[in-house]
Amino acid sequence: MRRGPSDQGGVLSTFFVRNGTESVAVGDYDPRAAVVVWHEVFNEVWAPLPDDNVVELPEALVAQLVKADPARMHDVALSWAPLVGMGFHEAFAHLVELSSLARTAVSRADTVCLEVTSPA
Predict the structure, then answer these.
(1) Burial classification of residue 50, based on how many CB atoms lie within 10 Å of its CB (0-12 exposed, 13-18 middle, 19 or more buried)
(2) DSSP string, 10-25
(3) Which of 15, 21, 26, 67 is at 20 to 30 A from 92, Cα to Cα?
(4) d(CA 11, CA 43)
(5) What pLDDT digit, counting tens, does each position of 5-37 carry?
(6) What is the pTM of this model?
(7) Contact call for residues 105 and 20 (beta carbons, < 8 A)
(8) Distance CA 116, CA 46 (A)
């Protein structure tokens, strides 16, 4: 089951390829906090994302998403899902979507961004 855009206090979030049309809706979790957790599980230490409306994901995280095999994605989903109250299978599917988005971006020499917007 694919999660739709989150509505956390009126905030909608999407991961997207900067110069493309591909995107993945965030779901019902804090994407900035998730990026930190994913980075840590991938054995990378990274500071939280800035509070800007649009930010690029760290290159190291994008690289990890690109090269992550199913076993690695399993480990990340297993560690992250309980932190956001998400089922393992849903978390795994979401990370697989993000991995695909990262591969698309890298194949185009582009980057993956996160957009957080408040509805009008």
Answers:
(1) exposed
(2) S-EEEEEETTSS-EEE
(3) 21
(4) 29
(5) 444 454 568 889 988 888 988 888 888 888 888
(6) 0.77
(7) yes
(8) 20
